[in-house]
Design a protein that fits this description.
alpha+beta; 4-stranded mixed beta sheet; about 45% helix; 2 helices; 2 domains
């Protein structure tokens, strides 16, 4: 076999600008408002289920579980919102991950297999660069 095509990680980063920060905060606040409405709706349905007696115990359990998931989501959103408000212009934040294909041959430099970063500013790709080796977590197999 002369070569093999494999995948390698691609990290998508965004450089923080005022516009990005404002849009991110607005998006998180909207998601938080929706989650709050869902918790309120579930609270109302829980009250109705509790008033229904033993025959609605399963419904109550399902509603309580769903409410607990929404409360946990709300906690996470609040943490993300606090972090977003702390972002400084010029910071780079990871916004996603993808994979790219790469063909390798015997004798190639193994650094070619390290992750690649794509840097986006205001919706435009401004750089494609190799990730620093220190940023990679290795696991013993």
């Amino acid at each position: 076999m002369e070569s093999v095509t494999i995948t390698r990680p691609v990290i998508i980063k965004v450089r923080v600008t005022e516009g990005f920060k404002r849009a991110l905060i607005e998006q998180l606040e909207a998601h938080l408002r929706n989650t709050e409405r869902e918790v309120e709706r579930l609270d109302f349905e829980l009250k109705r289920a509790r008033a229904g007696g033993a025959r609605l115990a399963q419904v109550e359990k399902r509603l309580q579980d769903e409410r607990d998931r929404r409360i946990e989501l709300r906690r996470g959103l609040l943490a993300q919102l606090r972090a977003a408000k702390e972002l400084k212009e010029g910071d780079e934040v990871v916004r996603g991950r993808a994979e790219s294909l790469i063909e390798v041959r015997a004798g190639d430099d193994w650094h070619r297999l390290l992750p690649v970063e794509i840097l986006v500013v205001e919706g435009r790709i401004v750089a494609i660069r190799e990730a620093a080796e220190g940023e990679i977590a290795w696991q013993k197999s």
